[in-house]
Write the structure tokens for this entry.
Amino acid sequence: MNTGADYQGTLNYIFAHWPLYGFTYGGSILCLVFMGISAERGWYGYIPLTLALVIVLLYLLLANTWAAHLQFDRNGLRPHLVLFEMARLRPSDHLVYIDLGLRRRPLGLSHYLTTGHITVIDIYNPQTTPDPALARWRSRVKHASPDPRLTWQVGSINLLPLPDHSIATVIVCQITSELWQHGDRVALLGEVERILTAEGRLLFAENIRTQTTWLTHGPMALAVPTLAYWHNLLQEAGFIATREQTLGGLVRCFAASKKSARQVQQLAFNLDLGQ
């Protein structure tokens, strides 16, 4: 067993978020030093409070690392493979994978194909995805070896390099949340809707705010969108979720289809009545 490969996702996550880990570790050390000073000077009332702070910091650090292991390691939740299975894709299918240059997941999916093909479109842009952790993660990614099952392309949230109604399946796995603006998320899914055929499917996965998220992320869980938000986003972009599955209380997987013309007209009629 290649232990390094098994935990490569976690290692990449820690490297990408090293300021958070450095702050937490450094804060814990400072608290321990303060406890020693308090004991020496007789400030005994500060010791239990400082010890509680150390426990909370270390707990959040370990819980966040465990959540990263579940989401990004190959023996974790593997939402990209769950999406593949939800849609019952075949080894001969052709699909598009929207990526941010991290490559690991489409490479993993390619192993399930024989005569099929994945077009991977990198939509990374530091203006629309400004998280410095993402940039640090990308810096660790190695170039992929040539593979006839994979094609690497560059696109943007406003223009995916494919014609209208040209593809049957698009996978967007934990990518949309990296776009900080709601309008950018709508634009990306609107482009996905454009390139999908009339019977095409969007396979979509994102983190959701649940009790598990609060336990693993602490106050940072406030930055994680709710399930209702993702439902509304899909609907706004022209999709209807036909199947859903929650993984580990952290990630929600959707299989979504394009709205038919009749459904769009009905939605517009309902909005008019609401006004």
